[in-house]
Amino acid sequence: MTQIALAYMNIKAHMAKHLKALRTAKALSLDATAKLTGVSKAMLGQIERQESSPTIATLWKISSGLDTSFSAFMSSPHGDVIREKTFPDDPNMLIKNIFTFNTQTRFEMFEIILSGYHQQMSTPHSVGVIEHVIVLQGELALFSGGEWQTLTSGQSSRFFADQPHGYHALSETAIFQNIVSYPLSNKA
């Protein structure tokens, strides 16, 4: 088995365990979790049984619905962090975990690489979540507040992520840092 296949199996297993642990800690059934997250009961069950890997959009829905951070699905309780992650349905989007969520700072930080002019749309996160985007390389279109804006290397933007938003590489490759800050009400 290749190292990539092994890493994929490990992240899939971690996501499954973390989802089940969150549900258990909150005493939620799959049905109740589906209502909170907007993700079907069947899909949640498949993720927990490791029969399916969630898309980036699905993982954000689960994170928002369960009032937890996105990076919590990419790190273990022991602090082991999966530093780089691509998702099977999003091979043109690589997420590098720079800082996992911290309860004192209330933020997490990623470096995101979009290749092949990839576009990634996101559903709203929890109320009060704010994203900060800093473009490191290339040209990026950022959708927030119902409109697109273009950012180039060295430019940045901050927006409320509790509304639909998205990112589109206008160059072959766009690399940007994404800082996600959570309000105090979030129990990540």
Largest sheet descriptor: 6 strands, antiparallel
CATH-level-2 architecture of the largest domain? Sandwich
Q: Give the N-to-C terminal Cα separation.
A: 34 Å
Q: Helical amount among residues, as a percent range? A: 25-40%
Helix-strand makeup class = alpha+beta
Remind me, CATH topology of the largest domain? Jelly Rolls
What general outline do the C-alpha atoms trace? globular
Cα Rg: 16 Å
| Portion in strands | 35-45%
Low-confidence stretches: 1-9
Provide the succession of SSEs. Answer: HHHHEEEEEEEEEE
Mean pLDDT metric: 85
Number of strands: 10
Describe the overall structure:
With 188 residues, the protein is an alpha+beta fold. It folds into 2 domains: 3-66, lambda repressor-like DNA-binding domains (434 Repressor (Amino-terminal Domain)); 84-181, Jelly Rolls. It is 26% helix and 35% strand. It has 4 helices and 10 strands. The strands form 2 sheets. It has a 6-stranded antiparallel beta sheet, with no helix packed on it. Strands 4-9-6-7 form a 4-stranded antiparallel beta sheet, with helices on one face. A hairpin with a 7-residue loop joins strand 2 and strand 3 (107-115). 29% of the residues are buried.
